[in-house]
Design goal:
Length: 367
């Protein structure tokens, strides 16, 4: 059945440089030397425990995964996360589409976080040219190059632009499809479609990122550390832009999910940190762990000695460590990020804390 679709080409799209933002990264980032506000005994005990677990994991070359929501980037924690990577404490980072966008905007514009209420009313929320154009183009190019979602954007920032292959090069790939990987052929067709539809000039497209030093995904690409993006269709502002291409999103995001699952597959003796991610982190973790257990069981093994620290602002009256999962009559049962991780075996700790306090205290403890 034919269903009429919204035509994004009819949108009046403004430059992101015209937008008023709430956060200016040079002024609002959190220095790695800042003292955490939380000084409770329980907080310090958990930080000490997590720190020791990370040290032990790295001593046996086990993964230390850091998964976080968009507010971790919006709160200016980029410098701290970068230091954790540079020191070798974190081996895999994962986040959602919004965090990738904020991280990109900080590096490109030095600012991010618009007034949603005001801009929806004006028909402007999320409809910004550079953010939508460059991130979507990076995903189409990255899909062609065999990259994941996070790597596609991170490499664009780190390299200061994108390399667009010539139409002739792409057409040669399409003509020789019998001799070429079909995934590559499909991605080449997507790229050729984008180049022609939007009159993209091939060759090197230079993009300036004057605030790159604050960018987590660029640092991850530079350091060779997996930074995986786990978006959901329609959740992020890049879907308002006409250059958005669902196939490229799917190709790059699937590669990142499988990269994430591979890190979980090696999580025995490792550490998994989930910070301020109520849905994305628990959802991708449970599927990844299930697939990993499937492979381990085939070899007579099982992943049991992983450590999970879950951090969020919400208070939890239920003692997950002592009492296990609450009954469906208890509101705590519906806190997905607690219920899911409590079912994942290993050791789970929940800490109600600000992500700034947690990351600062953890870095300073490890340092």
């Amino acid at each position: 059945m034919f269903r009429k679709q919204f035509d994004r080409t009819q949108l009046r799209i403004k430059s992101v440089k015209e937008r008023k933002n709430k956060i200016i990264i040079e002024k609002d980032h959190v220095p790695v030397t800042q003292e955490p506000c939380n000084k409770s005994e329980h907080f310090n005990q958990v930080i000490s425990e997590v720190s020791e677990r990370i040290k032990k994991a790295r001593s046996i070359n086990a993964p230390v995964m850091l998964t976080f929501g968009a507010h971790t980037i919006k709160n200016g924690m980029g410098p701290t996360i970068i230091r954790l990577m540079e020191a070798g404490w974190v081996t895999h980072l994962a986040t959602n589409g919004a965090a990738i966008i904020h991280d990109w905007e900080f590096s490109f514009l030095g600012q991010s976080s618009e007034d949603v209420r005001a801009n929806v009313s004006k028909g402007e929320f999320g409809i910004w040219d550079e953010t939508g154009k460059y991130i979507n183009l990076a995903l189409v190019v990255g899909a062609f190059e065999g990259k994941g979602y996070g790597e596609s954007v991170g490499s664009m920032i780190e390299n200061g632009g994108l390399n667009i292959p010539s139409v002739g090069e792409i057409e040669n790939i399409l003509r020789s499809y019998n001799e070429t990987d079909l995934e590559k052929v499909a991605a080449a067709a997507d790229l050729l479609y984008t180049i022609r539809k939007f009159n993209i000039i091939t060759g090197k497209i230079k993009i300036d990122f004057p605030y790159k030093k604050y960018c987590v995904q660029a640092a991850a690409y530079r350091l060779g550390i997996p930074f995986t993006g786990h978006p959901m269709i329609g959740h992020d502002i890049i879907y308002t832009h006409p250059m958005n291409h669902g196939a490229a999103v799917g190709r790059t995001a699937l590669r990142d999910f499988l990269s994430f699952a591979e890190s979980v597959n090696r999580l025995s003796g490792g550490v998994y940190m989930s910070i301020g991610s109520a849905v994305m982190s628990p959802m991708i973790f449970e599927k990844s762990l299930s697939m990993s257990q499937n492979l381990h069981i085939q070899k007579g093994k099982h992943i049991d000695d992983h450590y999970m620290i879950i951090v969020d602002l919400a208070k939890s009256a239920w003692d997950w460590q002592k009492n296990g999962e609450p009954p469906p009559t208890d509101p705590g049962y519906y806190l997905r990020y607690l219920k899911t991780f409590s079912r994942m075996g290993g050791v789970m700790r929940y800490l109600s804390a600000d992500n700034r306090d947690f990351l600062l205290a953890l870095y300073q403890s490890l340092k």
